[in-house]
Each structure stands twice: as structure tokens, then as C-alpha cells.
Specification:
This protein has 10 helices and 16 strands. With 350 residues, it is α/β, with parallel strands linked by helices. Bound molecules: adenosine monophosphate and magnesium ion.
Length: 350
């Protein structure tokens, strides 16, 4: 199929883009669009047939459920009957925004988007493009990240184009996204609620609202045999570049020296190497492709650049990537969660 690509201009001309996109959604087609987290690939979330197309375009396993995106609190009434007091508090604090909540689903919500589960994931995004699209489509929009399953999530329209051209009806180009990591997910069907995926809304932020918050033990560790992550999608290899990625953790100077040594060794063997570095460590690296993803003083920049850097190494044909580690506090927890998954948990601890 031909994929239409249209660029938002923040002018009245955008009106026509939203009209066209909403029409595609209402007819059961696929539209990719920017959100505040990463680019999403959306379809009518109340239609099993439309949802099936998302799985086909991404090559996503059908037991990996989708997130339903809504624009108003009242849209939730069609999706769930059970909103706990804790859920209400979280929504008041963090919606619209990068927080996904898991609820018991009403029967109208098709099993085709919940991976057969009785529960459903819901988020109210803050990005004006997707909010506009939801309103005009008159439905909840089911949307996972707009990448081929297993690849790093798209943070620019160009990334979506690489993966989805010819497989979807339309791509709305809204430039680079603001956050760059997928939403935080909290399961509200258990008591106390449980964090299933870390994101921009951090554990300390959530605990200010729900003191008792539990954390899925499988989050930062490699899943032990028989221990299943609670979010079905978290069991798959994710965010993975084509190169072999190794994280080196330890005292910053020592870790940088070790990375430089390992990368040099690979280069001597004739491989193309990439290094994920920070402003603080730039001086340690002298060969191969070095990418500075930000400064350690500002984790938001690091989060925003992570997936783009992984994709860039794919383009370059990098064979071995070495990355510094980050603190597991606050936003660092989400950054390390994605990095560890991208590395298939290959980490050297000095
Ligand atoms: P993505 O949209 O690609 O960010 O993936 C959505 C994530 O939400 C996946 O990791 C899913 O496993 C998770 N998710 C969606 N629905 C549920 C649910 N009902 N229960 C637990 N996790 C869910
Ligand atoms: Mg995804």
C-alpha cells in the first residue's frame, strides 16, 4: 500500500491532516502519529479487525496487548467499570501524560487488543496531535509504539518511515518527541498497585500518591525461568539494535577505560564499534563511532536520545556497541530498564 506522509505545521492547515487521519481510523485503517513519549501506531481500539492490522504491520506477537488511548476521562466509562480510589488519584495527578493504568476490562473491549486478557491498559496522552485524532475519530485508539517489533521505539517520523513505509495508511510527522521513552505502566487490578514498566513518571513520583506501590520483581533482572513478567510485552527482546550491545557498569573513569579497551580490541579484530558516552566521559574515547547522548546532569536528554542513537548504529552497520551505565534512581531506572533489554542483559560489572 502507499503510505501517505503529512507534516504538521501548527497552523490551520493541520485541520485537513486530522480530518484525513480520523477518516482512516474510522474506516479501520492504520495511522502513525507523535505522542509525548514515542511515535504510536494507531487503529480503532474497539475493533478487533482494525487491531489485527497493527499486529501484522509490526510483526508483533498477538499475546502482547495494546494500550488504549483516550482524550477525556469520560471515555474511560466504555472501557472499565472499576476505577479504584488509588486509580482516581493517579489519574488526577498524571493525566493527561505518560502514565498507563491497567484496569479490568468491560466486555465491549475486544480480546484482540488485550492479548486475550480480562484486563486492559489505558492512557490519556498529552500530545495535541493524538488528542485531536482521538476526538475526531470518536473512539479509543489502540496504539503500541510505531516500530517493527523488537526494534528500538521511534522518536522521529523518519524512524517510523524506516519501519512502516508501505505497511500503514498514513504517517503524521510532528518532529521529534519530547520524552523519548514509553509510558510508565501501573497495574491497578492488584492491591497495592504494581509498577510493571518504569518510565518518565518515576517511582518516587508515584509513591507520593500511592505509598504502598509494589514493583514487579522481574523489572530490572533477567527473567528467571518460570518467573513471568506481569506485562506480557516485557518478556520479549525489545529495543534491540542489530549490533551486540554490552553495558559496562562501575566507577565512571574505570568503566570508560574498560569500554575504550574492549572497543579497541574489537576494532583490531576488524569490527565496526560504537560507544554510547556522555559529556563527562567524552575525553576517554578515541576511535570508532562515539555518540554523546547527553550529560549526566540531565537524564531527560539521555532518555530522549537513547533510541535514536541505537537506530543510528544500525544505519552505520555497527557490530559491537559498548554503553556506559546510568544510576537506577528516578528517570535512570527507565533508561537502564530499556538499555538492559536492548543489551539482552549483557552487563559487565567492574
Ligand atoms: P507498547 O505499546 O509497545 O509500549 O507496549 C504496551 C505494553 O503494555 C506492553 O509491554 C504490554 O505488555 C503492556 N500491557 C498492555 N496491556 C496490558 C495488560 N492488560 N496487562 C499488563 N500489561 C499490559
Ligand atoms: Mg513497543
Amino acid at each position: 500500500m502507499d503510505t501517505i506522509i503529512r507534516k504538521l505545521t501548527a497552523s490551520p492547515d493541520d485541520e485537513d491532516i486530522y480530518q484525513q487521519a480520523a477518516q482512516i481510523i474510522r474506516r479501520g485503517g492504520l495511522v502513525a502519529f507523535p505522542t509525548e513519549t514515542v511515535y504510536g501506531l494507531g487503529a480503532d481500539g474497539m475493533s478487533e479487525d482494525a487491531a489485527r492490522k497493527i499486529y501484522a504491520a509490526k510483526g508483533r506477537p498477538t499475546d502482547n496487548p495494546l494500550i488504549l488511548h483516550i482524550a477525556d476521562r469520560k471515555d474511560l466509562e466504555r472501557i472499565t467499570d472499576k476505577v479504584t480510589e488509588d486509580a482516581d488519584k493517579l489519574m488526577k495527578c498524571f493525566w493527561p501524560g505518560p502514565l498507563t493504568l491497567i484496569f479490568e476490562k468491560r466486555k465491549e473491549v475486544p480480546y484482540g487488543i488485550t492479548g486475550g486478557l480480562e484486563t486492559v491498559a489505558v492512557r490519556m496522552p498529552s500530545h495535541p496531535a493524538i488528542r485531536e485524532l482521538i476526538r475526531r475519530s470518536g473512539t479509543a485508539i489502540a496504539a503500541p509504539s510505531a516500530n517493527t517489533s523488537g526494534r528500538p521505539s521511534p522518536t522521529m517520523a523518519e524512524h517510523v518511515w524506516e519501519d512502516m513505509a508501505g505497511k500503514i495508511d498514513m504517517l503524521i510527522d510532528g518532529g521529534s518527541v519530547g520524552i523519548g521513552l514509553e509510558s510508565t505502566i501501573v497495574d491497578m487490578t492488584v492491591d497495592p498497585p504494581m509498577l510493571l514498566r518504569p518510565g518518565y513518571i518515576t517511582v518516587p513520583m508515584l509513591k507520593r500518591v500511592i505509598e504502598q506501590l509494589q514493583i514487579d520483581p522481574s523489572l530490572m533482572e533477567e527473567a528467571a525461568p518460570g518467573v513471568k513478567p506481569k506485562a506480557p510485552g516485557m518478556k520479549y527482546r525489545h529495543y534491540a539494535p542489530k549490533a551486540e550491545l554490552t553495558i559496562v557498569e562501575g566507577d565512571l573513569d574505570k568503566a570508560a577505560e574498560e569500554i575504550e579497551r574492549l572497543a579497541e580490541e574489537k576494532r583490531r579484530q576488524g569490527y565496526r564499534t560504537g560507544i554510547i558516552a556522555t559529556e563527562e566521559t567524552r575525553k576517554f574515547y578515541h576511535g570508532g563511532d562515539v555518540r554523546i547522548i547527553g550529560t549526566r546532569q540531565d537524564e531527560e536528554t539521555i532518555a530522549r536520545h537513547l533510541f535514536a542513537v541505537l537506530r543510528e548504529f544500525d544505519e552505520l552497520g555497527t557490530q559491537y556497541i559498548f554503553s556506559e551505565a546510568f544510576s537506577q534512581q528516578d528517570l535512570g531506572q527507565a533508561i537502564m530498564n530499556r538499555l538492559l533489554k536492548a543489551a539482552g542483559h549483557q552487563i559487565i560489572r567492574l
